[in-house]
Fold:
Amino acid sequence: MNIVRVIREKRNEVRILIYGINYAPELTGIGKYSGEMAEWLVTRGHEVRVVCAPPYYPSWRIAEGYSARRYSREMLNGVTVLRCPLWVPSRQSGIRRILHLLSFAFSSLPVVIASSVSWRPQAVFVLEPAFFCTPAALVAARLAGSRAWLHIQDLEIDAAFSLGLVRSGLLKRMISAAERLIMKRFDRVSTISASMLDNVRQKGVPIDFSHIFPNWVDSATIYPLQSLNPLRAEWGIDRDAIVVLYSGNMGEKQGLEVVVDAARILAHDSRICFVLSGDGAARKRLEVSAGGLGHIRFTPLQPAERLNELLNLADIHVLPQRPDVACLVMPSKLLGMLASGRPVVATADAGSELGCVVSRCGIVTKPGDARGLADALQMLAGSADLRGRLGAAARSICVEQWDRENVLTTFENSLVNLSGGSSHA
Structure:
């Protein structure tokens, strides 16, 4: 046996193939977490290869320096990144989204299979979305004689049903049956919240092979600022204004209309300034809806090195959630909000997982209730003491439950154990 291989095995180093459409340098969502996870694993001595698309999210435009039509290879912070072509629609619809995901599934298939045969990873880690990639991940794992792990960031099939993107009853049953069959073939299935895990287990995934792998936040990088935030001056925001901030993707699932409606209700309150920072399919429509409201502004996402300044711009974070996706999505942006030490107002069902978390460090209002949201924001705007107490609670909860080192160390242990264990398939 090769002596290098012996040393690697003793140190529990693992060759890991990560397969998913989104990856760094995307600043939000799945790409952000996949990039941080891969780079962290490299610092722990593991070999990591990623098969992904060129960065395009959340603007739905291919980033400068990348191509939607060509295959490419690059090295990013110790991670080998293989990028595959995909089609990015200029306008969003159900069928366009499906074709977008399919384009990546087909273009990435030969790359994933080739990597499994030539590189022989010990673990194949595939992310949903896109579920279209899961069959190729299973084949790749079996060809390499390795373990297959499905991690669900977004229950996209259930969300498509809830949002009415798939209407045919027969088609729904066929898709659901295929999803159940494929999920049960993985050696491990994880997702980011307890409610999503319940959903996964209802699909027939055994309890022993499914668990929570939550998103995380680097609490040493995102932390409460004590000094005056430079973004206030740069964006012309009065230092005494109470800033209500939403930062992240502006898509259809976010339900951001309620924030604009609440801002309209509070137009008379000169203390409050609304900032919506981000990009996405719904941004242009929201900007049109907010036309004429001088106390609401739209700003671009900030680079990673200014994320802490952006999150600390808030006196109050606002996090809307549509009720029809409450059990299907756990907003990862919540963690940065909590780490910044600011209170959160969420529009969510009180019994939902998001509602339960926010009730400990903010205020929960009914989904779609602009008046209730406006009243909650106005109450917090009027009490610096209440904002301080809730913000301190937010920071404490975040560090205790979602600190990056703790979450990723637990994940690493599970991955190492799985790569040396036996398959249940």
Notes: The two ends are 29 Å apart (CA to CA). The longest helix spans residues 94-118. Residues 1-10, 421-425 have pLDDT under 50 and may be disordered. The longest strand covers residues 47-52.
